[in-house]
């Protein structure tokens, strides 16, 4: 149980760090003239790279050398989480939920999907 709590807490911390990296990248790119929509693509890429390295090292404690195949699975799982987020948010707002509660629920759903995907598909031992 302690190991699961540690894993969950570290996962949240890595996600928080990636949020800061993504938000700072987005802001910096917008300030140098990119549109927010164009800037979101590299900012999201940097955030995913941050979570891959952090989750690999600290959350799931992978000791094997990284591979492109693993990184590809990670990106695929992350994009799956993005799809879960978008689908959940869309369904809830379509059903009449307020924006912020729908955003929060979509974020939690995507986090759960990502955690399970990373643990059992990407970094499975």
Notes on the structure:
- The protein is an all-alpha fold.
- It is built from 4 helices and no strands.
- Helix 1 packs antiparallel against helix 2.
- The radius of gyration is 15 Å and the shape is globular.
Features of the shown structure:
globular; mainly alpha; 125 residues
- The coarse overall form would be globular
Main sheet properties = none
Mean pLDDT: 95
Structural class call reads mainly alpha
Distance between the amino and carboxyl termini: 19 Å
Summarize the helix and strand pattern as letters: HHHH
Level of helix content?
over 70%
Query: How much strand?
Result: under 5%
Number of helices: 4
Based on CA atoms alone, the radius of gyration comes out at: 15 Å
What is the β-strand count? Answer: 0
Q: Which stretches are low in confidence, meaning pLDDT under 50 for 5 or more residues running?
A: none
